[in-house]
Design brief:
It is elongated, with a radius of gyration of 17 Å. The protein has a domain of 53 residues. With 77 residues, the chain is an all-alpha fold.
Length: 77
């Protein structure tokens, strides 16, 4: 079966992700590897940087999932 990217409608980051990676210290990596509060809710240099759900980013992506998997109109609502 051919691979398909179901996230191809999700917007790509405009931030310089590679550049940020070169700024991370070994101590920040150590904190991130614990996957604790600092990872999920801290700043982006020590982990995920906090989650913020923006529905507009997911509208086209959810539609793509529904079409691909032939889900009913109420799926994902």
């Amino acid at each position: 079966m051919a691979e398909i990217n179901l996230l191809d409608h999700y917007p790509r980051s405009k931030r310089a992700i590679e550049e940020r990676g070169s700024q991370i210290t070994e101590n920040q990596r150590k904190i991130a590897r614990k996957f604790g509060k600092e990872f999920f809710d801290g700043n982006r240099l020590s982990g995920y940087g906090g989650y913020r759900y923006h529905p507009r980013f997911w509208q086209d992506t959810v539609k793509r999932f529904k079409e691909y998997y032939h889900l009913g109109k109420n799926a994902g609502s």
